[in-house]
Amino acid sequence: MKTLTTLAAMVLSTTSAFAQPAMVARTDKGEVLVDGRGMSLYTFEKEVGL
């Protein structure tokens, strides 16, 4: 089990090394976050109940 956990940690750490950083692009509506291909990135926040 310890080997499986170590292997999983290694795989997860290497995939983030190849991730491209987010960039800011200008649009008619203002600045937005985009990925390396220019696709919009979204952030989500937990809604607060009324």
Automatic annotation (TrEMBL):
Keywords: Plasmid, Signal. InterPro entries: Lipoprotein_repeat (IPR005297). Residues 1-19 form the signal peptide. This is Uncharacterized protein. It comes from Paracoccus yeei.
